[in-house]
Design goal:
seven-stranded antiparallel β-sheet; 363 residues; eight-stranded antiparallel β-barrel; mainly beta; 2 domains; disordered N terminus; Jelly Rolls; 1 helix; 3% helix; Lipocalin
């Protein structure tokens, strides 16, 4: 049985993400560990999830998937995957050891108790027989319903994968109800294809760390082609934002309004006099759209993702990404900085432009 720990936002790295026009491929990248800090098994110093419990750690991203065709991959390493070793976990008041730990990706998730997952683990056919022993990786596509796990299909692989503690990519290529499962280190292997009876509109993606596993995620990659604005939806509403900010002790969280800009409209045009909200994440802030859109106004509603700020080694300075009025991501060399705690400047040096926001102190 898998016990879950849901996480609000976990997409660590989004690449080749088509946001606006079906005929055009747009790329964006995020390196977000948002929400990981909320689970006890996450170590912020190492970036690892070390699960020493009987149940799975299940980490779900909050953004819903509304397109029927997408690809989702995670490149992860399981440090507790050494041949001939076992790892201690706590089961109730007892301690026991497991030797074959599992980890993988989650997709088609309704919540942290109902989802599909691709899980990998390594085994030896005859551990103590040097002549006949063969190490292999087992890849399982599982269905979890009300925390009860059922294996839909599995396969064994012993080539083009790392069967110790180095990185492997685990992925699914989804086309409506058809799911292709792929695994590999330097070369992806398509292992099998299944038809799932129910692929849920608005489902979520995530990661799974099994009992005894100690996992580090290098990146996740989500790619799809759609002009659906809902790909930038978040769970935030005005009510939720107000409640969150009322309890927040973070001086930068809250509402920010357009102050001024320095840009040439023929190079980069600001889509409105925006009011935005900043919500803290483990690596910076999510920029949430509140109001003020003028260009493509009908495409924007309160709560949509407008961009992200990612911490750097410099205090109050961030790498940034911005989603423009047409839902096109802009992240090339974008920078952001706070001034005196009440001014946020977002710079677009490639376009020789910047926009400033001021913090709303009485809202």
């Amino acid at each position: 049985m898998m016990k879950a720990k849901a996480i609000s936002t976990l997409l660590l790295y989004l690449a080749t993400l088509c946001l606006a026009y079906p005929a055009t491929i747009y790329k964006t990248r995020y390196n977000q560990y948002s929400g990981l800090a909320r689970i006890a098994d996450f170590n912020p110093e190492t970036g690892e999830v070390d699960n020493r419990h009987e149940a799975f750690d299940v980490m779900l991203d909050s953004t819903g998937i509304f397109t029927p065709a997408y690809r989702y991959f995670a490149r992860i390493a399981n440090y507790h995957n050494q041949e001939g070793k076992s790892y201690e976990i706590v089961s109730g008041h007892r301690k026991r050891h497991v030797s074959s730990t599992r980890c993988g990706i989650i997709f088609n998730a309704l919540n942290d108790s109902n989802y599909n997952a691709v899980l990998v683990s390594c085994h030896n056919s005859r551990l103590h027989d040097d002549l006949l022993d063969k190490r292999y990786m087992e890849v399982e596509l599982v269905q979890v319903r009300n925390n009860k796990e059922q294996v839909i299909k599995s396969a064994h692989i012993d080539k083009n994968v790392d069967m110790a503690d180095r990185l492997n990519a685990i992925g699914v290529d989804v086309d409506h109800n058809t799911v292709h499962v792929l695994v590999g280190n330097d070369k992806l292997n398509q292992l099998f294809t299944v038809e799932l009876p129910a692929m849920h509109n608005g489902s979520h993606l995530g990661l799974a760390t099994g009992p005894g596993a100690r996992v580090q995620v290098e990146r996740t990659v989500l790619s799809y082609k759609t002009n659906d604005r809902r790909i930038v939806n978040t769970p935030w509403t005005i009510e939720k934002l107000n409640l969150h900010f009322a309890r927040s002790q973070n001086p930068y969280e809250g509402y920010w309004e357009y102050l001024d800009r320095d840009m040439s409209d023929d190079v980069l045009r600001l889509g409105g006099r925006y009011t935005i909200a900043l919500v803290a994440t483990a690596t910076g802030y999510d920029i949430i759209y509140v109001s003020g859109a003028q260009v493509k106004k009908s495409m924007w509603t309160t709560g949509m993702l407008k961009g992200r700020l990612e911490k750097t080694i410099f205090t109050d300075n961030f790498k940034a990404s911005w989603i423009d009025a047409t839902l096109r991501p802009i992240d090339l060399d974008v920078q952001a900085a706070f001034e005196s705690g009440v001014i946020l400047t977002i710079k677009f040096p490639v376009y020789k432009s910047q926009v400033r926001f001021s913090k709303i102190l009485d809202r």
